[in-house]
């Protein structure tokens, strides 16, 4: 018998942003290029979909100051098989990414086969200026969800965020806020790029604001941080 | 050495007991094969079901590399009453993925037992270990230029024959009913015995992969979709590569055409004119696997209205139903059967036939042709991008291969799904007499309300179909207990009597297909 969902839900802290201490004002627009985080952020291979090499997520990852190499995943899912052999090659690799559902399902399961570690797994939907996030995290991503929530709130974007810590006895965390403005619609992706880019390099901090380029991201995405 | 720190324990097992078992696993398998850290376990927990991940969180995962190690694992589990959930390649997307059926179960991941033990190109069979993927076998066959071909599930490149057959999965060639083509299993039982089915118990036998039945009771089937043993080797038959392969598609414009399609198709399948597990995919399946996204057309929540579906048809040339089948053999054989098929569909006066020459490299024709000819690919994962959101559960009722029945099931499923604001994304996989009516219940897991809706929808699908005498052939782990109930008490009593006899400590995958000594009450 599988655990009844009500049992799990009952234990959740139905938190809201009212319970969060909001940090100071967000860094100025464009700061992504001006003040990279001079930290120990480690090099990473960044996986994004075709055409997203300048996306908010990549900008966020670059803003960590770490050396990032961007690989775009094209439409032919079978091409991902080359990643499988890379993951399984025994070489040390750090992968972060924001991908469509299909590609990400494959990448994450290939990571499992390769015996890789996954520190962060996020499911995201962006629609009509509101974003929803469901995170499955580990202790090494402690504080990231809170930081992301704070940042989303700071940007004025409406969002819902649920964080489950794998196996943690602590209740799942839920945060939400109504939208106040649309000026920084893609900041959520930059924030995640930044958080994942700097995972393991000290306390998570806010990503610099990125310049909103073009139409806001719309659709469903999966973010991850994988290490072999 | 890291301690188990993820806070998840098997049902009824204390931390102390669990730690003792983990220490023994480490001594048996080596540290690197005992995964207890959160980061190591996250990838085992990307479930797509309508329930919190916590409900299917593993307490640990262990990987074994030999049959003796599997025996050792079973011994430790008996000593400490640790339940284990076995996976082979672990790609059971939409049925529970690689996650255990119940929270806290230890995953026994056999991915490292990945030897291709034998491929006999004359007798046309293979004998493999559980971790072997179809992709690996395909490469082996290509590298050795062997005149045989594979049949596999759509996640072909990365899934494997043992796991797929243990869950009684299907493929798209004439050998598409995989359990029917299985011949000879080696199973580690809960008491540590190694049992070989069929001819496998006969010393020196060379017919283990040749003759299925052996002598006396034939037990292979009882190890599939069950929790009576751990399969450590499996034999299965391979189809000789035909000199000519001719895939084709027939496109039908209207939803109601399903009745006539099936009525024309069934005799062709029963007579063997169309030899393979053909497929009739509806417009949304076709669109999803052909890289079309719902958001290209509509962003409003709820089901995709019929007008939009018609618009997709118009824009893409896809049908309301899309039949894919293939012919195999010599040119003469293919020509004769092709003429029969063309004549039959001409008589019907409906359906636009598309050949490979006409389709070229377009999707979804290309991947369908590959699946029907044993060439692995991953194209069908495009379904996950149709709506997005990471929720996917297969609802797969069995239907008679009769037009009126298929129409009835399709209408019922569509009505229930639409009631819950979800799409009818479906295909019929056509055996001679039955259809696997496979529906992908896709939803957004970031949306708590939609997730609950999907959960209620799945439950209602099961209820409504059951009222009409229908049941699914396989289900995700969230609903396995519910589905077991559809199959009746006598069956369940017998299954639990067998379980008590072969696994009295209830260590092998408790809950699998509703078989669980701790919770079942006759
Ligand atoms: C886009 C898409 C298309 C799909 N198309 C198909 C399809 O065409 N046909 C189809 O059948 N499925 C299909 N699936 C579902 C699924 O992905 C496949 O069936 C896949 O082959 C199952 O994963 P696997 O082969 O890795 O088996 P595993 O995940 O390794 O095993 C499946 C289950 O079998 C049992 N098991 C596995 N190994 C053992 C063992 N050694 N001993 C005892 N029990 C064991 C366990 O309960 C396990 O959970 C599809 C999924 C997706 C996402």
Automatic annotation (TrEMBL), chain A:
Keywords: Signal
Database matches in InterPro entries: TAT_signal (IPR006311)
Superkingdom of the source species: Bacteria
Signal peptide region: 1-30
Protein name as catalogued: Uncharacterized protein
Keyword Signal: yes
TrEMBL record, chain B:
Organism per entry: Halopseudomonas formosensis
EC number: 1.-.-.-
Gene Ontology terms: biological process: lactate catabolic process
Protein name: 4-cresol dehydrogenase (Hydroxylating)
GO MF entries: D-lactate dehydrogenase (cytochrome) activity; D-lactate dehydrogenase (NAD+) activity; FAD binding
Enzymatic class: oxidoreductase
Cofactor(s) recorded in Swiss-Prot or TrEMBL: FAD
PANTHER family: ARYL-ALCOHOL OXIDASE VANILLYL-ALCOHOL OXIDASE (AFU_ORTHOLOGUE AFUA_3G09500)-RELATED, D-LACTATE DEHYDROGENASE
FAD-binding PCMH-type domain ranges (all copies): 54-268
Name of a matching Pfam family: FAD-oxidase_C
Keywords linked to the UniProt accession: FAD, Flavoprotein, Oxidoreductase
Keyword Oxidoreductase: yes
Gene3D superfamilies: 3.30.465.10, FAD-linked oxidases, C-terminal domain, Uridine Diphospho-n-acetylenolpyruvylglucosamine Reductase, domain 2, Vanillyl-alcohol Oxidase, Chain A, domain 4
